[in-house]
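Quick start: read one record
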Amino acid sequence: MGRIRTATMLVADWINGSRKFAYGRFPRPHNYPPGTAAPVLLLPGVYETWQFLGPLAKRLSADGHPIHVLDELKRNVMPVADAAALTARYLEQHDLRGVVLVAHSKGGLIGKHAMLFDDPDGRIDKLIAIASPFSGSSMSRYFPNRALRAFLPTDATLARIGAEARVNSRVTSLYGAFDAHIPEGSALEGADNRVFPVIGHFRILVDPAVIDAVSEIAAAPALPASDPAP
């Protein structure tokens, strides 16, 4: 792919993400029908609200899934471990089981951490992670901000998550052909890895093929539970 075309698509991706950040408007989860399919919990990326996942929430709600969000997550700048604990606490408080986590970027790390270390009752069935930096991102070194430097491949929490593979079979990692935010890519060993012909970190969230895939995966039969978290 030519450099000019790649640069143009990356700029379009930034604009797409910025527009969602500033103007995204989707119904609050309690305004969606209750649904009888597996409950879905949305986990956005850093500096994102759940509304970044609004197009997916709309489709999943139409499929019959109850939609849940973590208001306490706010703009998702808290450490991954804290956000994972918040996730587990929400599931317990609302007595949710057979849960499907649908995550973008950092949300995938939160979801995997929760499955590994914060879900002793096995409430989480599967994680659908979109453009998640499971191996970190070398781009983080260019940012002094602590919330972004947490994605350095050498980060202790990231290393701890990466060292554990026992839940990987219950993870589906969806990612584009190129993502400037994550040069290392989003492949996760042992997971169901699916690559889409999409350029960018945000555009993938509105790609029709990706939305169809999330719908299909969320509706699939429950997966075998992993060993209990230690």
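The first strand starts at residue 40 and ends at 43.
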